[in-house]
Amino acid sequence: MKTNELREMYLSFFESKGCVRRPSDVLVPKWDPSVLFTPAGMNQFKDHFLGRCKLEFTRATTCQKCLRTGDIDNVGRTAYHHTFFEMLGNFSFGDYFKREAIHWAWEFLTSPSYLNLPKDTLSVTVYKTDQEAYDIWNKEVGLAENQIERKEEDENFWPASAPSEGPDGVCGPCSEIYYHTPLGEVEIWNLVFTQFERKGEPTGTLENGLFNNLFPLPSKNIDTGMGLERCASALQGCTTNYHIDILRPIVEAAGDVCGVKYVPTDENGRRLRRIADHVRACTFAIHENVYPGANKEEYVVKRLLRRGVLDGRRMGLSEPFLWKVVPAVIEQMKVQYPELVETQEQVQDVIRREEANFLTTVDNGLGKIERVFNQMKAENRTEITGDEAAEMYTTFGFPPELFETIAAERNFSFDWDGYKEAMRKHGEESGAGKRVELFKSGPIEALKSEIHNSKFVGYETLTVPQTVVLGIISNNKAVSNLTQGAASTEEKPVMLVLGTTPFYGEMGGQIGDTGWIRSNGDTISVKLGDTPLLALTPEERKLLISAAPAEETGAVPFEFEVTDTQNNNGLLIHIGHLRSGAIRVGQIVSAEVDEKRRHSIERAHSATHLLHSVLQKYLGSHAQQRGSKVTEDTLRFDFSNPQAVPTDILLKVGKEVNQRILEAAEVSGKVMPLEDARKSGAMMLFGEKYPDDVRVVTMGESKELCGGTHVTNIAKIGAFKILSEESVSTGTRRITAITGMKVLEYMTAREEVLTQLAQDMRSSIDELPVRVEALQKEVKQLRKELAEAKKQGGPSVEELAKMVEERDGYNVLTAEVAGGPEAMRELSDQLLRHVPRLAVMLGSQMEGGKAALAASISRDLLAEGFDAAKWIRTVSKMIQGGGGGRPEFAQAGGKDGSKLAEALETAKTTVK
Description:
single chain; 36 strands; 38% helix; 25% strand
């Protein structure tokens, strides 16, 4: 059975069982801070499992794109490990449970209408105390006792070992299904029964053998996962997943690109499998606009590509090659993911550039690693130090995991704690970072479980005369009331949740609204007392329908200043301070957004859409949004582009945005099904997660999916001005711009500067360019004359020798001389011949206010660890430059000659 056939058969089977077929979630779920990449099929259904959203369906089935790097060192070496893989799954949210999940799995595996596997080739495992699952397999399905194995919590519980080791939260036993082939047994399916909530540490066990810290959930769920590649491998009789019909062609294509015949059992065969896996993973990630970078998911992409480059280097390749494997990946994956074809050229370009960047340093880096290993052997040392690893990353771009892998091949260990400390001192982070818990819990999450979503009316109005307070959170606790002047209101902001609100919560780059929430003291007629809303019964909550006078409830008027609004997956959180009075849950309130501020944000947001559209016109469709920040009449827009935007193009972009503003097109926002939006030609960003129904915002030629707020007519933007265009990371550019009155303020300030400058230069504004050019020529001539004068002077070798300072066992000299690099090299050589055990650094002023440095170390000091290249790097930054060289001689240049004397003085203290 072909892999594509298996995928479709699985999804169709569970559709026949009433499951709704859902598309794969994005590979990088930006909405979920607990993960960098989607690790499993259940990830997109977290809120469904926890009851934090309104359920539009209670059964689902998916084929999810996943990426994991926990076992990255096994990729290519074992039969089943991947970074990128597809996970088939079926899910239940308080609907079907163990009996159906087990029977349907057995039907799909053994029925002649589906996989038709012989029943005697299958076996299962269950959690040791899960008698219910055991009996279903044994008494209902008919598996013999020798086909069912009971296992401990580290094998058959999710999360692994949760009862005894945690974390607290949703958990449950699982049942794994194994397929026995002539090549061995393969786990092809895992059925997870999320039926408990873990609370605290266990203090004993119950009669059924379960720990007493496991409490039954009111709504039991099903989460199953079948690895597509692993199941296809078993069905196709392959010895490894990499030989199935959609992966073997990629491996062999990698061999063709590398000029190496694929032999599965040799070291190059393992390298080719690893290259195939990593290129497939990076193709999907870059397609979703995740480019190689220094942090988080971008760092993972960089690390995978550099592992691939190193594998190629070890097979003799010295030019970029990974990008040539991308077409083979897309050819095999386009049946399920046809959108990959649209970004093939972009993906190849990004990979090629990253390869080229790494190849410029890889040989020097490998040479440095060999020197480190030789030094370790000489010192009888077996651990790579943190400083050594940090230098390899900051100087040569070697990810520490890659260094660790190379070290492990020589049986050397790696000091991770030392590396992290060294990187902290260097001011960088590898992107590993701390991960937050998978199912976060707290007062906001509890509110979301009760309320699900807020009703947002801020598209139509900025004021709501009557709504109700549904929740109050103070000091990270849900409370029923709050009084102004209490310590909790003074120290930290308070959070309010309203039934209906005009306040926009920060999302999609647009910052949250500010304003006021007020009450005259009316409250909803419910016996609240000191009970938070969350503690009310469903019947009591249904009574939140009618207002009662203040004197009947004890409620008083209040004013609450909203300083920020956040969007927690549909629940709008109003953050601010209680300025007067007291708030109670159930109180009737009015809500009013700061109108002036909201309109200034809308101007910037609408201008962002126009900018995006115009950039694509002038740069091409690859110039897709990679991030944005919209504040008051200011926007920051990040987009994909391999190089800086030429000045003439940038001017055309700014001009056309303003021309479109003058066209005064109406702005409309219309909610429609996602497929209809796609057919309408609305711009969609790869890597973004869209709901079934989306809002399409149209303004002239621009049509995008957007949930933000906008001006009603683009003429209201007023004006648009680009302030800067710069690099953010490899392949990503950033434009900062302003709109509305800020443009007028900016132009007025610039005019004032020009007027003052013209007065100082005794010229008109129009004549300033000619006057400045004349001044520049004059300064250049004067500097030239000064340099010539300095060449005629400067200390001689004999005078420099007298300036040598004797230190503890060596001599050091730093001095400023005339003549530039050649003169410094000649003077250094003469000094080394006259003065033993000498470390010398000379500096020279250069044209244009620049400076140069040269450092030399005598041979008798080299053996003691003195290094000219390291020495010169300690001070070259002081002159705004950089340099390098060999241990015996190094050079550097910098832009700031005014700091030369200071750099030379500092060099005396850093030579060792």
